[in-house]
Design goal:
Blueprint lengths: L9 H14 L4 H20 L4 E4 L5 E5 L2
């Protein structure tokens, strides 16, 4: 397995820590793996002519995720 290291601002580190807690991720690494998996889905959808949309519970579109 490869290792990747990078520096982040204190604000981004705080955001990452909050997201770890909110998503129930076991670690920052797990959170970033999940985030990259989500980005992969979004990019693939874009290149297939599809969209990712945020919708209300009744499926009413609220916003489109732009990549």
């Amino acid at each position: 397995m490869s290792r990747v290291n990078f520096d982040v601002s204190p604000e981004l580190d705080e955001t990452i820590n909050k997201l770890v807690k909110l998503t129930g991720s076991a670690s920052k690494s797990e959170l970033l793996r999940r985030a990259i998996a989500l980005m992969k889905v979004a990019v693939e959808a874009k290149y297939e002519g599809r969209k990712i949309v945020i919708a209300e519970k009744d499926r009413t579109p609220v916003a489109e995720v732009i990549i």
